[in-house]
Automatic annotation (TrEMBL):
Domain named Reverse transcriptase zinc-binding: residues: 457-552
Lineage start: Eukaryota, Viridiplantae, Streptophyta, Embryophyta, Tracheophyta
Species name: Trifolium medium
Name of the protein in its database record: Ribonuclease H protein
Domain of life: Eukaryota
InterPro entries with a match to the protein in the record: RVT-Znf
Length: 667
């Protein structure tokens, strides 16, 4: 270690660490504490401390002064509750439990204050090669660095020595990763203790955060779904065969199937992944999630932080790999790792420009903004907007600051390698008209993520963006989409709402749909179960069947509404919820769902249990079901069943409501 310069704290930093405790830093630690946490042995938690802080602050200040003077804590601080969490289904001995300690609030206050002080110097105390537990550093940066180094050594057949230093946490004892036999006190100070001491020798390959480091290229184990490292979507692209397996498992789970026992998938998976306002279920597509997570690496390549992994990328793939929104083929040499190839080609099968078009430069002094290859004026790159001028320019690598001049007559110092052709001459005035109004400031340039109002990158906005790019055509029109979005807000059991969603799409197992899927072959077997007069389609079963018409008539009489033959189920739902206060609209939507659900259950009872058709029984089920659902939804309001039977609108409005009585005519 001769010649190695270790990080050292400055005199000011040392003084900051050992100075007497101030009341404001103690108050800050208490305000940031969660008041709902479990109490300590004395029975009080942080909610009590916050409520009576004016009475307690003097005593707490004395405690901190004593701790600062003696550097010792009272023995009572070592007293805490211990809870045992079973590690197996049927625990028999103490070793089958995981002990967790519940510390007292005074210990936590001191730990939080010390943590806040130490966090101010950790960035200068710990080398940049350590990427864990330091604010502003990312845990997976270390995984990327090690994988890039190992991958480079293997591809170039260069011998190298890799020293693995693993922080020894309190879970590890005697070289084995196991739970401790004694409960260990943990707090916000523990991660910093891990960084400044403790370690053991290990071997390669190993796992870090569940990700293989130094192992065989990650593609091969990912071929098997159950060997896929958890969280690998943060670092590398998930292979097609893996996300297809995950999608199949999701689809089987959605439709109630098991592995090897596939149920009918009534809805295309692309539609299921659409947002609810577009007729889908809002299920996240694992492929889109993976692309959104990888896009964060692309964004971090643009920022100005001096991370170790970014310096490694610059040295390995060149300067154009960092700080450039466009990563061309020149950034992917033959020794490029799988991780780098995934970063360069995120979403390449969707739209090559989806990332580029949503990243822009907020112009300041123009020193770090490429004139041709950055989006700094308008919504597109200037080289794409004026390709002929770009090909004629000899300043393709120049920045905006280099080309801008202070001359009032000539704002831009543009140079060309040849004279313009006739068809190119009119492009230069258009370019100058676009860029002449631009003025520079003394502020540094910065990148802006267009989908976010604050300009900061987020995986959430990226997921929405990629979902729009990768989505199929919307399953429903915007008007129908508003109805789909509304049914999820109406009170009802989840299975009823899911059935209503499926019904509006006409994706329920009626006999007509089963015949269309060749499950029922004979046409005569497709007749309605309730009336036996027409083919059993969704429109017939829930609207035009004489049993359904009778039920709807009874429901509209109950609601004091005029009833005429509706055009579709959409029409009934739209007219029921088209007017009134929010709760009333939700109540009407709930009644609509109860009617279709009761009709479907009655149809199944007639089909499979041999019951007789009884519209009055269906109507009675609607009344009872909606009464129970509304009581469960509206905790504050209560009504008796006979009140609900007489005036459901008044029960929805409440005792102080104006009531509801109107007549609707369906066309």
């Amino acid at each position: 270690l001769n010649g190695v310069v270790f990080p050292m704290l400055s005199c000011d930093e040392n003084q900051m660490l050992v100075r007497p405790f101030q009341l404001d830093e103690i108050e800050k630690a208490i305000l940031e504490s969660d008041g709902s946490k479990s109490p300590g042995p004395d029975g009080f938690n942080f909610a009590f401390v916050k409520a009576f802080w004016n009475l307690l602050k003097c005593e707490v200040r004395i405690l901190f002064d004593q701790f600062h003077g003696t550097a010792t804590l009272p023995k009572s601080f070592s007293s805490y509750f211990v809870t045992l969490i079973p590690k197996i289904v049927s625990p028999f001995s103490l070793g089958d439990f995981r002990p967790i300690s519940l510390l007292g609030r005074l210990y936590k206050i001191i730990a939080k204050v010390l943590t806040e002080r130490l966090s101010r110097v950790m960035d200068s105390l710990v080398e940049t090669t350590q990427s864990a537990f330091i604010k502003g550093r990312n845990l997976v940066d270390g995984v990327v660095v090690v994988n890039e180094v190992v991958d480079m050594a293997r591809r170039t057949s260069v011998s190298c020595l890799i020293l693995k230093y693993v922080s020894t946490s309190q879970r590890e004892s005697d070289g084995r990763d196991q739970y401790p036999t004694r409960p260990q006190a943990r707090g916000p100070f523990s991660p910093f203790l891990i960084l400044v001491g403790g370690g053991r020798v290990s071997s390669i390959p190993f796992k870090y955060l569940g990700l293989p480091v130094g192992a065989t290229p990650v593609r091969s184990p990912l071929g098997n779904l159950f060997s896929t490292p958890f969280g690998s979507g943060w670092v590398c692209g998930i292979p097609v065969q893996v996300w297809k397996k995950i999608r199949r498992l999701q689809r089987e789970f959605l439709w109630g199937g098991r592995r090897g026992n596939i149920r009918i998938p009534w809805v295309k998976w692309e539609v299921v992944c659409l947002p609810k306002k577009k007729g889908g279920l809002g299920v996240r597509d694992i492929r889109v999630v993976n692309i959104s997570l990888l896009a964060k690496w692309r964004w971090r390549l643009l920022t100005n932080d001096n991370a170790v992994w970014k310096d490694l990328v610059r040295r390995k793939y060149g300067d154009r790999a960092v700080g450039k929104v466009v990563l061309d083929a020149g950034c992917q040499p033959w020794f490029a790792s799988l991780w780098w190839k995934d970063i360069c080609s995120i979403g390449c099968n969707l739209n090559d420009n989806w990332f580029v078009t949503n990243v822009a430069k907020k112009l300041g002094n123009g020193e770090h903004t490429s004139f041709w290859e950055d989006t700094w004026v308008g919504n597109t790159l200037l080289k794409d907007r004026f390709p002929r001028l770009y090909s004629a320019s000899i300043q393709k690598e120049a920045t905006v600051g280099e080309l801008h001049t202070d001359d009032a007559a000539v704002h831009w110092n543009l140079a060309w390698r040849r004279r313009f052709f006739v068809w190119e001459e009119n492009q230069l005035p258009h370019l100058l008209d676009l860029i002449n109004p631009i003025t520079l400031t003394d502020v540094a340039d910065c990148w802006v993520w267009v989908p976010e109002k604050n300009g900061h990158f987020s995986v959430k906005s990226t997921f929405s963006l990629v979902s729009e790019v990768a989505a199929v055509q919307d399953a429903v029109s915007p008007w129908h989409g508003s109805l789909f979005s509304f049914i999820w807000r109406c009170p009802a059991p989840a299975k009823v709402t899911a059935f209503a969603w499926q019904l509006l799409h006409d994706w329920i197992p009626t006999r007509s749909n089963l015949h269309r899927r060749h499950i029922i072959h004979a046409v005569d077997d497709c007749l309605c179960v309730l009336c036996g007069e027409s083919p059993e389609s969704a429109a017939h079963l829930f609207l035009y069947c004489k049993v359904a018409l009778k039920v709807w008539k009874l429901v509209f009489q109950w609601l004091n509404l005029y009833f005429a033959l509706p055009h579709s189920l959409y029409s009934i739902l739209a007219y029921l919820i088209h007017t009134g206060e929010k709760d009333l609209r939700k109540g009407m939507g709930m009644i609509w769902k109860a009617v279709v659900w009761s009709l479907w259950r009655h149809r199944n009872s007639v089909c499979f249990e041999g019951e007789n058709s009884n519209p009055e029984k269906v109507f009675e089920g609607v009344i009872v079901s909606t009464w129970k659902w509304w009581l469960n939804y509206s905790k504050a309001a209560s009504s008796l069943l006979y009140e609900w039977r007489m005036q459901p609108q008044l029960c929805i409005w409440g005792a102080n409501g104006p009531g509801y009585s109107c007549y609707l005519l369906f066309v």
